[in-house]
Amino acid sequence: MAHLDIYDTTLRDGSQGEGINFSLQDKLMITQKLDDLGFDFIEGGFAVSNQKDSEYFQRVADMDLRHAKICAFGMTRKKQIAAEDDGGLIALRDSKAPVCTVVGKTWDLHVTEVLRIDEAENLAMIRDSVAYLRAEGRRVIYDAEHYFDGYANNPEFALKTIQAASEAGAELVCLCDTNGGALPEQVAIAVQAAKEAIEAPVGIHCHNDSELAVANTLIAVDSGAVQIQGTINGIGERCGNADLISTVANLVLKKGHEALNEGAVAHLTELSRYVYELSNMNFRSTQPFVGSSAFAHKGGMHVHAVNRLASSYEHITPETVGNTRKILVSELSGRSNIVAKTTKYKLDQDSQLMAAILKRVEEMEYVGYQFEAAEASFDLLIKKVAQTYTPKFDRIHYRVNVETDEKHNPETEATVKLKVNGDIEHVVAEGDGPVNALDNAIRKALVPAYPALAQMQLVDYKVRVINSTEGTAARVRVVIESKDDKDVWSTIGVSENIIEASWLALVDSVEYKLYKDAGEFDFAKD
User: Range of 254's domain?
Assistant: First the structure.
């Protein structure tokens, strides 16, 4: 199978997604990560978009990239302006980027109704822009915007536009499903037509408005595309872009193509979460290949089969993409789940202990706990049932006070009194709300004894009413997600009091961190 070039546009097309705003440092850090894994092209942004993108191109030029080529993105010259006088093309030239990606109109609707020019002028704009940048010593990739819509509406004209780019010196013509509405069979036909019409190789750039971006990308490769454009985690405008995580995994693991550096696929989970973190987005648990639920098993029959033969319910081994298998535990699980879940803790399939754990799970789920979303709390539960749990600290009491100042702004203060290694810690901390204040107070009390807690962060907080028929007296379930520089974990607390439920989840999170760091998840009885 062929080697495929992977072109990442997370920093340009991905940043156009709602709620996403990369800082300059974010963009430089993602660039380094992508280069480390062997991405072939990294599109850094618009050459004339804003000061941040302009500075990015100046800064990235000084980075010691080992593999990736940086691309600056821009448009063809404006109508009735010479290419050498067009500000956008001049900015592309001056960006220091070795590769310029130029986008032009392919759909005759855009030519006549948006640009309001004739077809001849549109072809000249494409040809002049590519030729100018080539003459200035730049490599040029031409993005054929709305190629599939244009081909469907007027195939003859659509092919003329990409011929103009190829003949002017574009090293590759990328066919763009800009509206994200093409179907796989349409993509196959239009890609084959493009390959027959031009000498330059073709690439593919799909949006996900019909949830077919990855499928369309794969069939485009089957039809002859040699460059794949997309974004990490599929972020981008509207419904996003083709997710390069799933696309690369499928191309390499399922179709046998070569892409990225050798061994890079095993780091896809790490890359996915790295970009989520820098883009300030929560992980998507059900994301294929790399989501925390991608290899999660709950039904007892499934788990029993996975214990016997993992491939019976998994399309690949999770470690192939840097992920891990997860056995979920609930009242539906049965003994198979408990056995599978505790195998890593070397309990030697103690049937009496397994029964005790399952009984305790059933009791706690009856009052509202759900451990499939809180594995760290489940690990602590095992220690408690196995009688190998000793708390790292003891609560004496806590108090949370919320009041408004003279400007009616709420102020929150938490006081905690803990016993830590025989000493009493009585501290006060403020926060943005009750949970944040409690979190700050717990850490303030514990960091002197456990300095590693300074690296722990609370990253997500969810609350749900369990028995809503009880009104304001209903029991609530709080799930907290925490992380450090190595791991992400979730804990749970249930109570009729939302602050107490939050406290229970916070305490489990801290206890899990301390046990994990100390390597004390060995459940053999003392």
Answer: 5-260
Cα–Cα distance for residue pair 477/502, rounded to 1 Å: 8
Query: In this structure, is the dihedral angle defined by the CA atoms of residues 200, 177, 245 and 99, taken in order, positive or negative?
Result: positive
Considering the domain boundaries, does residue 141 fall inside one? yes
Tell me: the pLDDT tens digits for 487-524?
889 899 999 999 999 999 999 999 999 999 988 775 54
Torsion of the alpha carbons at 209, 212, 214 and 219, rounded to the nearest 10: -130
**Is pLDDT at 526 greater than 50 in this prediction?**
no
300 vs 280, more confident: 280
pLDDT band at 68 (very low <50, low <70, confident <90, very high): very high
Q: Give the C-alpha separation, 79 to 62, whole Å.
A: 35
Confidence band for 344, pLDDT divided at 50, 70 and 90: low
DSSP class of residue 4? -
* Contact (CB, 8 A) for 377 and 393: no
Q: Which whole-number Å values give the CA distances from 141 to 99, 104, 133, 344, in the listed order?
A: 7, 11, 10, 50
For residue 32, the surrounding DSSP H or E stretch is helix 24-37
**What is the pLDDT confidence band of residue 386, given thresholds at 50, 70 and 90?**
confident
Is 186 part of any domain? yes
Q: Which residue has the higher pLDDT, 469 or 52?
A: 52
- Per the domain annotation, does 135 fall within a domain? yes
Nearest alpha carbon to residue 141 among 79, 220, 225:
225
Q: How far apart are CA 406 and CA 413, in angstroms?
A: 16
Please count the structural domains in the chain.
Answer: 1
Outline where DSSP puts E strands in 271-358.
296-297, 326-327
137 phi/psi in degrees, rounded to 5: 85, 15
Answer whether residue 461 is part of any domain. Answer: no
Whether 254 contacts 265, CB under 8 Å: no
CA atoms of 51 and 121, how far apart (whole Å): 31
193 is written with which tokens? Answer: 């037509």
Structure tokens of 456? Answer: 């722990």
Note whether 266 and 319 are within 8 A (CB).
yes
pTM for this predicted structure: 0.70
Identify the CATH number of the domain in which residue 67 sits: 3.20.20.70
